[in-house]
């Protein structure tokens, strides 16, 4: 019995086109108006790169970019270390007294509204400041706040990877005399390395993008990039924002393309290895 050929629905195509248009049309307009010489962001005058030049001479915006990148790198790195340790404890140590509480505290930031998290951290930092005289609100408090919620995301990603691993390899290594610490660094860590990289990139993106929590815990003179953009938009739409957003899209696009090429190359190599093993 011959199966009927699949009929492509025009509605499906229309919905797909509409979705991509709504997603990418604003980005395209943003890039177009970033090379507009007019200070009015909705009125086209002529092609110009003046806003890119002005952006690189804007010390406040450059300082905000540098602060955000520094905090994002530090927060992502710290969150990876803490999240990996937490995931190993939850997955490899089994049930122990306090394991349920630890799992709850790790997952709570995932569902907690940013306003509540920011307010709670603000009250904590104020109480610490009165009790110990530290920390002063600024870069350090923003970093600590970002580590708090980024660790939860990293722990979830790495926990999922740990649960998928075959423990027989680790058990075989310990049967041959390897210590648990050596097994972790020599066997477990390389196997969960893709999840660690994914967790780091996720934490970096979340930290770089955060606005609500950062506004609660920041101090005078410590403005991250989202905060500086928000302050600039409140004073009126600045064409520099279009130029900055276009550069971010360019960097993200290049990074995504490079990552796609690397993954495609590794997938082809994996298929070739499987075919070679099947022939042998």
UniProtKB/TrEMBL annotation:
Transmembrane listed as a keyword: yes
Gene3D superfamilies xref list: MetI-like
Domain of life of the native organism: Bacteria
Swiss-Prot/TrEMBL keywords: Cell inner membrane, Cell membrane, Membrane, Transmembrane, Transmembrane helix, Transport
Keyword Membrane attributed: yes
GO cellular component: plasma membrane
Subcellular location: Cell inner membrane; Cell membrane
GO biological process: transmembrane transport
Membrane-related topology note: Multi-pass membrane protein
Domain ABC transmembrane type-1: 65-259
TM region(s), chain numbering: 12-35, 65-91, 103-128, 140-162, 183-206, 241-262
Similarity section: Belongs to the binding-protein-dependent transport system permease family. CysTW subfamily.
Name of this chain's protein: Spermidine/putrescine ABC transporter permease
């Amino acid at each position: 019995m011959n199966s009927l050929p699949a009929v492509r629905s025009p509605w499906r195509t229309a919905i797909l086109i509409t979705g991509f248009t709504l997603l990418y049309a604003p980005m395209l307009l943003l890039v177009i108006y970033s090379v507009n010489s007019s200070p009015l962001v909705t009125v086209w005058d002529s092609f110009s790169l003046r806003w890119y030049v002005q952006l690189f001479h804007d010390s406040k915006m450059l300082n905000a970019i540098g602060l955000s990148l520094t905090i994002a790198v530090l927060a992502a790195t710290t969150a990876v270390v803490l999240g990996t340790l937490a995931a190993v404890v939850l997955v490899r140590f089994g049930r122990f007294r306090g394991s349920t509480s630890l799992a709850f505290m790790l997952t709570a930031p995932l569902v907690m509204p940013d306003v509540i998290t920011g307010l709670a951290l603000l009250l904590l930092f104020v109480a610490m400041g009165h009790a110990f005289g530290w920390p002063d609100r600024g870069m350090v408090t923003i970093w600590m706040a970002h580590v708090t919620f980024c660790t939860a995301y990293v722990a979830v990603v790495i926990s999922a990877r740990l649960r998928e691993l075959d423990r027989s390899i680790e058990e075989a290594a310990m049967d041959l005399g390897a210590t648990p610490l050596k097994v972790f660094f020599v066997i477990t860590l390389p196997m969960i390395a893709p999840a660690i990289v994914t967790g780091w990139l996720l934490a970096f993106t979340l930290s770089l993008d955060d606005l609500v929590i950062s506004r609660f815990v920041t101090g005078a003179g410590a403005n991250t990039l989202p905060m500086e953009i928000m302050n600039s938009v409140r004073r009126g739409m600045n064409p520099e924002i279009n130029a900055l957003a276009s550069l971010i899209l360019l960097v993200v696009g290049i990074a995504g393309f490079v990552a796609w090429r690397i993954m495609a190359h590794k997938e082809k190599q994996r298929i070739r290895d499987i075919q070679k093993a099947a022939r042998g």
